[in-house]
Amino acid sequence: MASISASEKLLASSRLISQGAEAKVYKGSLTAAGGVPVLFKHRFKKQYRHPTLDATLTKARVAGEARALLRCLRSGVNVPGVRMVDAAEGLLGIEWIDGSSVKRLLPSGAQDGEEDQGGVADDHNPLDTFPVSVVGLMRLIGVEIAKMHLADIIHGDLTTSNMMLRPSSSSDTQPDLVLIDFGLSYHSTLVEDKAVDLYVLERAFASTHPDSEPMFASVLEAYGAKMGKEWPALRRRLDDVRLRGRKRSMVG
Amino acid sequence: MPALLLPSNPLRNPEHPLLALGIEGSANKLGAGIIKHAPDGSSTVLSNVRHTYITPPGEGFQPRDTALHHRKWAFKVVHDALSSAGISLSDLDCICYTKGPGMGAPLQSVALVARTLCLLYDKPLVAVNHCVGHIEMGREITGAKNPVVLYVSGGNTQVIAYSRQCYRIFGETLDIAVGNCLDRFARVLNLSNNPSPGFNIEQKAKNGKRLVSLPYATKGMDVSLSGILTAIEAYTQDKRFRPDGLPKFTEDQDIITPADLCFSLQETVFSMLVEITERAMAHIGSKEVLIVGGVGCNERLQDMMGIMARERGGQVFATDERFCIDNGIMIAQAGLLSYRMGMTIPLTKSTCTQRFRTDEVHVSWRA
């Protein structure tokens, strides 16, 4: 078949901006070039995976991601809006977010600055461009995750690279924290799943941002306040989940 | 002092050649190896001897019997390592042994050998973390500079990256290790444990055609494997399953063979491992992957990882069974690096432990 699908046409007219964990991310537009910018997330065929397994996973993940985003939007969680879905092709078009990744706003332990093209001297704090402190940012993170969990959406891959800070329209109000990449998300009401979600974030903090324990504590504090009466049970479960990692020291 | 962006390498080249003996025995492999670090910074593997405790098909190795095996073979394995390197024990600069993680009884018998040799010949003793040994040997052999490491073996499944003198664990299994999952399924199928159950699964999988549906359990950068083992075991009770792999009569086409199950298990589990590795690479921004550990010599896993790395414009580093499967030389390599940083231990501290996480080690020899 010589004809190309509508999704392929959209991608052809878009610009590749990065390759994430499992998808290529493009910036383009649904209308003619120069229209409202849209972010396309293309889960291309993974050659390493068995074709049947790949097709099943891709379809389920694109549909699942769109579903989770819609559910979040309905509950007022800051996430990108859905613009188009083509599950069979593995293409998802979502609202373009103008902001910076939280990972870049926090001090990292990375040694080689290969991907840190920003390459500015260490004394420059990238968070200075936003009217918010580190603790303030942690609170925003906690509140947004709590809103998502109150909507019974589990993100499945909470890391600081999956959060963006978007400047608010007026300079004196707080910026918005936007949760992105719902590729591994799912719907669940279980305390267990929410606790594992938090644990994944805790581990991501510890591995990406050394000495981040106090930072994560403020995330949990804001999260707990927002969760209200669900929090005590969740906190206990989080303690259980922490003990599950393998070969942890058995002392204490 | 010039303020450099990159911290300088803390490891100095030795003034004279250094020799280390490494003894490994955390699971069913007993290994001894001798490595030399030359003043020009190069390393040479002088010998790498291994003896594996192989159990009958359908059986795993028990700690007590494995420890007995190690005790029985320790003298010969160490002796062979020395004679093929052409040196004597008094030429050594240090003796390195596996402190953990691993099975308690085998670890103890190996630690005892190391202590005895260190007392007899008055040599310094170095305790080595088994996982760090794998990583350092992989780096030495492949020349990978700062890779994301997938460490897959019978006891461990971890995605690791180096940061600030520590091998940080980004993702790991939430229950059983991938090698354990494969080995236990090999036992269900009654495959031989010689040379290893995983190797025989790999060979069987080459004839598999049908991909049966299995759970796919990645949680962020972690994986869960025990449910997959249960699911694949259930297929051996399925009425379509033919233990001999042959149709019962000519129209009997809708069948599942042991080869299909091995194939499906590998495809599913390895896809999960490649996926979490890719996730870690994307998260850190690294383009190199290093596969270490016993499952790392599986060629299907290496192929899949290679395809993934190429799709990201990176490359994969892997070694063969001499260095992937537990061996003494990796303990010597990591131990000698520690020795050069002055990290020797007194006899009273020469303990071993079943639980010893990769991220507990201070990697003082890297910048």
From TrEMBL, chain A:
One of its GO terms (molecular function) is protein serine/threonine kinase activity. It catalyses: L-threonyl-[protein] + ATP = O-phospho-L-threonyl-[protein] + ADP + H(+); L-seryl-[protein] + ATP = O-phospho-L-seryl-[protein] + ADP + H(+). The keyword Ion transport does not apply. Signal peptide: none annotated. Transmembrane segments: none annotated. InterPro entries: Bud32 (IPR022495), Kinase-like_dom_sf (IPR011009), Prot_kinase_dom (IPR000719), Tyr_kinase_AS (IPR008266). GO terms for biological process: tRNA processing; tRNA threonylcarbamoyladenosine metabolic process. Component of the EKC/KEOPS complex composed of at least BUD32, CGI121, GON7, KAE1 and PCC1; the whole complex dimerizes. Belongs to the protein kinase superfamily. BUD32 family. This is EKC/KEOPS complex subunit BUD32. It comes from Gymnopilus junonius.
Automatic annotation (TrEMBL), chain B:
Residues 45-332 form the Gcp-like domain. Binds 1 divalent metal cation per subunit. GO terms for biological process: tRNA threonylcarbamoyladenosine modification. It is found in: Cytoplasm; Nucleus. It is an enzyme of class 2 (transferase). This is N(6)-L-threonylcarbamoyladenine synthase. A divalent metal cation binds at H130, H134, Y151, D326. Its cofactor is a divalent metal cation. Transmembrane segments: none annotated. Substrate binds at Y151, V152, S153, G154, G155, D183, G198, E202, N298. InterPro entries: ATPase_NBD, Gcp-like_dom, KAE1/TsaD, Kae1_archaea_euk, Peptidase_M22_CS. One of its GO terms (cellular component) is cytoplasm. It catalyses: L-threonylcarbamoyladenylate + adenosine(37) in tRNA = N(6)-L-threonylcarbamoyladenosine(37) in tRNA + AMP + H(+). Belongs to the KAE1 / TsaD family. GO terms for molecular function: metal ion binding; tRNA N(6)-L-threonylcarbamoyladenine synthase activity. Its EC number is 2.3.1.234. HAMAP family: Kae1. It comes from the Eukaryota. Pfam families: TsaD. Keywords: Acyltransferase, Cytoplasm, Metal-binding, Nucleus, Transferase, tRNA processing.
